[in-house]
Amino acid sequence: MMLEISVIIPVYNAAEFLEKSVQSALQFEEVKEVILVEDKSIDNSLQICKKLASENNKIILLQHPDKENHGAAASRNLGMQKSTGDFISFLDADDYYLPNRFDAEKEIFKDPKIEGIFGAIGIEYLTEKGREEFQSKFNDTFLTKVNYPAEGMEVFKGLLGLTPKTFGTFFHLNALTIRRHSIDTHNLRFNELLRVHQDSDFIIKLTYHCYLKSGIIDKPVAIRGIHDDNRITKIIKYSPQYNQRQLLFWKSLYDWAEQQNIPSGSKEKIYLKYKSFDLSQKTGLIKYYNIFIEAIKNPNILKTQYRFNYQK
Question: What are the pLDDT digits (tens) for 276-300?
Answer without folding.
Answer: 999 888 888 888 888 888 888 888 8
